[in-house]
Structure formats: structure tokens, C-alpha cells
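We close this part of the discussion by returning to an individual protein. The sequence in question and its C-alpha cells are set out directly beneath this paragraph:
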Amino acid sequence: MPATDPVHETVNAVYLSDSRQVLATLIRLLGDFDVAEEALHDAFRAALEQWPRDGVPANPRAWLVSAGRFKAIDGIRRRKRFDQLDEESNADVAVVDPPEWTDEESVEDDRLRLIFTCCHPALAPDAQVALTLREVCGLTTEEIARAFLTPAPTLAQRIVRAKGKIRDANIPYQVPTQAELPDRLDAVLRVIYLVFNEGYAASSGASVMRLDLSGEAIRLGRLLVELLPEPEAIGLLALMLLQESRRAARTSADGEVILLDDQNRSLWDRPQIAEGIRLVEQALASRRFGPYTIQAAIAGVHAEAPEAAATDWAAIVGLYDALARADSSPVIELNRAVAVAMRDGPAAGLALIDAILGRGDLGDYRLAHAARAELCRRLGKVP
């Protein structure tokens, strides 16, 4: 059948939009990551075979869950002589649209269950992030490896070990209790922000940005705020919205990245900016905020400036001071140095950057040398 067949196009579209939701529900129903992944692929193969003949079902997601579950249990029965299911159970397996598989709230709960399972404290932090990016968001091993600056085979082994740990330690597939949630939040926030960054500045592919991933991260951020309206969850959502608001102005017609100062601010998404700033104010008012909220506040100062020259650099330097106290790193120091250069002049910023590089930090970080070169140019120190 031609690749342009409408039903095949529908199957491909459903895969892109619903495959991770289907996987999350299959993991709950089948209790095993690998079995659920195999069932997911079996379900889509069945869709390619049956939908052209029988028509696209009214609820494709529920059909796929049912087909995947049926095929998984049938495979287990064949491999392990799994004959304890009686005929009544067989009939239940074949049901296409049970209410709990079609209810949107239940589906979203499955996504949250999957996120928190992947971010379980029994897993190493890097494994938590890698597994969630792979299983919840569907990034390829190569994309995740690039984000981690890790060889792809090493990253693949990390994911395999994480799945084995979940299986062998009987890690529950559930959303933590309210008492457990705060301790589990940091890893989840880190995962969501990594997903957003992969969509906002894609590490691979023909496009600089991947709207599907940044949109997915924002959706997950909204779900998390609904589940746990902690200041840092609110701050992260604000940060993503404020950064996403600049999407339309970030690239030229040729796909080249346009720097913040050169962007056409009339293209910025004002409703997203308004929502982001409202969320920043809400998080700051709690006085229990952290690095994501401070970064969102910095993005908010940029967003409120009608033009680059009107940016309140004194406020941004103050926010970077707070960010350095909350989450000190050489990259944050570099960003603060650039802000100081904008507030106090290039010589002041250059001295700070030279101090960072003089310590041996960021020697291989391209942006540090680019920032230094720009300040030297502004001072007329061009060889």
C-alpha cells in the first residue's frame, strides 16, 4: 500500500500524538517496561494491518491499548503456557473501549505514574532523567546521549539497567503520596526542563526547535502544577512559558538562530508572557522559591522590556546574585558577568569572565569564549 495512504497517515499521526500515553497505560496494565514496549509496537503493527480493512476506530488510543494488552498476554501464554486465564478472561482481554482506558483523567494519571516511577529515588539521578526522556517523551537514545554528553551505547546500557532496577526492586508504578511528593520533586523538575530544552534548542535533526517536545514539557509542567502546586513547579512552568513565548522570533526564514537582542519583539507571544509573569509573581510570593523561579524572573525582566535597550540590567544582575546563592555554577557566573557588562560596561564584565577562565573553569565552553571576544571587540581589543 502506498505510503501516502490516508489510513497509514492516520496511524503515523496517532503514533506521534498518542504513543507515549498508550505506553504509559500498557505499563500499568502489564507491569513491565519491556513487555509494554513490545506490546506498543505490536499494537501499531496490528493497526497498520486492520485499520485499512476495518476502518479507523472511534477511539484509536483505547483500541491500541486493548490490542497491545491482548497481544502481550497472548505472547505470555504462548511462551510460558499461561493457560490459567479462562474464557471469561479472554473475552475481557478483547474489549476495545473499557471506560478506564478512554477517560482522559485516567490517561493523564498514567503519564504521571510513569514520570514518578522513572524518577524513583532508588534509581541514580542520571538514570532517572534518561529513562524518563526515553519512556515518557520518546526521545531516541542518540538524542538523550547528546544531551548527557555520553556515548549512545553507554546511555543505552544505563536505560536497560534502570528498567532492570525497577523490575527487580518491585518499584511501584504509582504517584507518590502527598507526604512523599516534595522529596521526589527535584528529579521530576529536572527531567521536564531537559525535555523542554531539547525542544527549545534541539540537539539533533533538521530543525533548531522541536515544538512537539517543548509543548510536551509545558503540558507536563501544567500537570505537575495541578498535582503539586509547589513554588518551584510553578516557577519552572513560568520559565518554560516565558522562553517559549520567543519561539516565533528565534529563527530567521533560513533557520538561523537570532540572538535575543536582535529579535523582533512584536513576534513574541504576549499571552504566554502575561501568564509566565503571573506565575513568577505567584512563586516569588511564597518565599519558598528556588533556581527555576529565579531564572523565570530573569526571563520575565527580558520579556517586559519593549526593546533590548530598555532592559533593566540592574534587576537582572540582582537576580543572578540570588541565583548564584541558590545554585552556584561557572555557567551562572558567566551569565552574571555578561549582565554586569551590560550594566557597568564591557571592562567590568571582561574582568569577571577572565577570572572564571583563569580558574580553569569553562575552558572548553564555546559561549564563554564568544562572550569574552564580544566584550574585547566592544573595548577595541581586537588583534
Remarks:
- The radius of gyration is 24 Å.
